[in-house]
């Protein structure tokens, strides 16, 4: 009997390499994955890769335009903008990653719990999700930052909490759909414990929608955190993210109007990459487009 | 939509609003450490801390605090600002017009640009125009609205001087002045929504074009313009309303950053300043206001379905 049940779940596992191959076959998705990997390399090794020290000031050379020496020019302290963008990649990428991790840590167990238990657990968790969703992401994040105080860490927590209902809903929906499948009933029938059913049968089958949702949320989280940093509530100097770089660049728009371009383009490309990867995975696993 | 359905939706909305109000009330209680000390600041004297504790009622039992606060909210009394000492309700109502004008203008931009682009792409599926619109929509969704606002201000206000660069002009200064101040921020805020609308409208147009009644109409010699007016726009109305409902929150949140870029002193600016000053009564009022707007819009969207599509009325 166990063998039969395992055979039922096998397709979900075997298809993983197939999904990856299908995603990589799309040029846009392959380029996006390459771009994200490059960002990760820059985030880890930025200090050594950057052409200049991102913190060295050259006050005689403020607001210099792009040149061979300074690809994206220099900022209000004469610091090399290209090096600062590379250096800020670490915070810019890791902040949404940690936020989405927090959202999964909250939303995944609650979503599974709501789907498996149903009844009052489902009703209460569902209402809690509705409550958080009634607030615009930025407004909710602002409220949480108001409680915890401004800063990078509190911003990451705030965005994580705000996005947890999105994970919760996807997990709950996918888990409910899976529990209707025959192989789950078969597992129940052969006396598989609830925990085992959850780990071996339910989790692998909600992995795909969860992966799509987390990838898309990465882009949104990056934008929300950039917004908070731009407002001065997120990353605090001397740390820098692309959002806080935009804030500084915009404050000096009369001296260097083009300075807002490089951090913004870096941000657009990154969000674009996450969205493209998310869409490609969604198409590859045959999920419907989000509405 | 039946009367019973409307009552159920209303009830759901009221329940969510009550939960939001509960969470909002708890905001002050959840401040790590002693809330009164945190609000007063590290260097505040003991007397100042006590004064704040008393003003916020933090010296009373939590249940009593909550009931006092809740009955206040129900009467429209959100307390007083810790900094200006003005009533929060009037502070919010005073700051609301520029923000709401910006949000509504952004919706107008989004519908005009998004629906037009979506219909064009849907009618010319597979053409270069379709591909161009799809690519632009993908790009539009990935662009942070506040960055777009910076670029628009740099190019069209500071560079070309076509529009004023900053601030909001009330309608009393003339419709032209009012509109010219709103154009750039509204375009920046509405762009992502326009992109989302374009995608959904295109899908809807593509779907309608495969319907038998469209083929019949074509066979009877109907022009494309007639088809667009008679069938396509009507069918596209449903995804448009759905997307707009879902995007209300995004637009409302977006006003915060756009206001910071363009220097509009509306609700967003009020909220950010209140967070920086730890003016909790104002933040609580702002959060409740935003939640009420979102719940109300979703209710209106639900009711609109019945009006657009008679099939939903009985559901």
TrEMBL record, chain A:
Annotated compartments: Cell membrane
Membrane topology term: Multi-pass membrane protein
Is Cell membrane among this UniProt entry's keywords?
Answer: yes
TM segment ranges: 28-50, 85-116, 128-149, 155-178, 198-224, 260-281
Domain ABC transmembrane type-1 as annotated: residue spans = 89-278
Q: What's one Pfam family the UniProt record gives for this protein? A: BPD_transp_1
Tell me where the signal peptide lies: none
Q: Name one GO cellular component term.
A: plasma membrane
| Listed GO biological process terms | transmembrane transport
UniProt keyword terms in alphabetical order: Cell membrane, Membrane, Transmembrane, Transmembrane helix, Transport
InterPro entries in UniProt: BP-dependent_transpt_permease, MetI-like, MetI-like_sf, OppC_N
**Family from the record:** Belongs to the binding-protein-dependent transport system permease family.
Instruction: Output this protein's name.
Output: Peptide/nickel transport system permease protein
From TrEMBL, chain B:
The residue ranges of the ABC transmembrane type-1 domain are 96-305
Q: Which Pfam families match?
A: BPD_transp_1 (PF00528), BPD_transp_1_N (PF19300)
Matches recorded under InterPro entries: BPD_transp_1_N, MetI-like, MetI-like_sf
Q: What are the protein's UniProt keywords?
A: Cell membrane, Membrane, Transmembrane, Transmembrane helix, Transport
TM segments? 12-31, 100-124, 136-163, 175-195, 251-271, 283-308
Task: Write the lineage as a comma-separated list.
Answer: Bacteria, Bacillati, Actinomycetota, Actinomycetes, Pseudonocardiales
What would be one Gene Ontology cellular-component term for the protein? plasma membrane
Task: Please state which protein family the record places this protein in.
Answer: Belongs to the binding-protein-dependent transport system permease family.
Xref: Gene3D superfamilies: MetI-like
UniProt-annotated location(s): Cell membrane
**What is one GO biological process annotated to this record?**
transmembrane transport
Task: Provide the protein name.
Answer: Peptide/nickel transport system permease protein
Q: How does it sit in the membrane?
A: Multi-pass membrane protein
**Where does the protein principally reside?**
membrane
């Amino acid at each position: 009997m166990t063998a039969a049940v395992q055979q039922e779940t096998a397709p979900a596992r075997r298809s993983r390499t197939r999904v990856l191959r299908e995603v990589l076959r799309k040029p846009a998705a392959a380029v996006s994955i390459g771009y994200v990997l490059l960002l990760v390399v820059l985030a880890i090794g930025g200090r050594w890769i950057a052409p200049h020290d991102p913190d060295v000031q050259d006050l005689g050379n403020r607001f210099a335009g792009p040149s061979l020496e300074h690809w994206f020019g220099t900022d209000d302290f004469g610091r090399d903008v290209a090096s600062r963008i590379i250096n800020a990649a670490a915070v810019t990428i890791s902040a949404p990653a940690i936020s989405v991790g927090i959202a999964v840590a909250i939303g995944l167990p609650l979503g599974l719990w709501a789907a498996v238990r149903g009844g009052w657990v489902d009703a209460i968790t569902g209402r809690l999700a509705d409550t958080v969703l009634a607030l615009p992401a930025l407004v909710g994040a602002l409220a949480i930052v108001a409680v915890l105080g401004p800063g990078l860490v509190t911003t990451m927590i705030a965005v994580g909490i705000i996005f947890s209902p999105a994970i919760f809903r996807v997990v709950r929906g996918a888990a409910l759909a899976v529990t209707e499948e025959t192989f789950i009933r078969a597992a129940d029938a052969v006396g598989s414990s609830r925990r085992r059913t959850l780990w071996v049968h339910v989790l692998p089958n909600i992995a795909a929608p969860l992966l799509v949702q987390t990838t898309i949320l990465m882009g949104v989280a990056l934008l929300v955190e950039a917004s908070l940093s731009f407002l001065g509530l997120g990353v605090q100097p001397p740390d820098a993210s692309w959002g806080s770089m935009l804030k500084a660049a915009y404050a000096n728009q009369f001296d260097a109007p083009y300075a807002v371009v490089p951090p913004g383009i870096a941000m657009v490309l990154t969000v674009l990459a996450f969205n493209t990867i998310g869409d490609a995975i969604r198409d590859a696993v045959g999920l419907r487009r989000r509405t | 939509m039946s009367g019973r359905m409307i009552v159920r939706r209303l009830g759901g909305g009221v329940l969510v609003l009550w939960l939001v109000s509960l969470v909002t009330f708890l905001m002050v209680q959840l401040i790590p450490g002693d809330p009164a000390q945190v609000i007063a600041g590290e260097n505040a004297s003991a007397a100042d801390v006590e004064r704040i504790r008393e003003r916020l009622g933090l010296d009373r039992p939590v249940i009593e605090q909550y009931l006092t606060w809740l009955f206040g909210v129900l009467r429209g009394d959100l307390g007083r600002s810790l900094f200006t000492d003005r009533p929060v309700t009037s502070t919010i109502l005073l700051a609301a017009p520029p923000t709401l004008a910006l949000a509504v203008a952004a919706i107008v931009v989004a519908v005009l640009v998004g629906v037009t682009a979506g219909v064009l792409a849907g009618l010319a599926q597979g053409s270069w125009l379709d591909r161009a619109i799809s690519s632009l929509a993908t790009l539009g969704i990935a662009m942070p609205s506040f960055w777009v606002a910076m670029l628009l201000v740099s190019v069209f206000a500071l560079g070309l001087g076509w529009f004023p660069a900053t601030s909001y002009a009330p309608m009393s200064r003339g419709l032209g002045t009012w509109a010219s101040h709103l154009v750039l921020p509204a375009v920046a805020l509405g762009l992502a929504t326009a992109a989302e609308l374009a995608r959904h409208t295109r899908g809807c147009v593509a779907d309608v074009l495969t319907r038998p009644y469209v083929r019949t109409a074509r066979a009877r010699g109907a022009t494309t313009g007639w088809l667009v007016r008679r069938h396509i726009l009507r069918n596209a109305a449903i995804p448009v309303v759905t997307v707009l409902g879902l995007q209300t929150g995004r637009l409302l949140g977006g006003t915060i950053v756009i206001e910071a870029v363009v220097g509009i002193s509306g609700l967003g600016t009020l909220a950010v300043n209140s967070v920086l000053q730890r003016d909790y009564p104002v933040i609580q009022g702002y959060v409740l206001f935003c939640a009420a707007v979102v719940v109300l819009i979703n209710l209106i969207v639900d009711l609109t379905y019945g009006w657009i599509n008679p099939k939903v009325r009985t559901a």
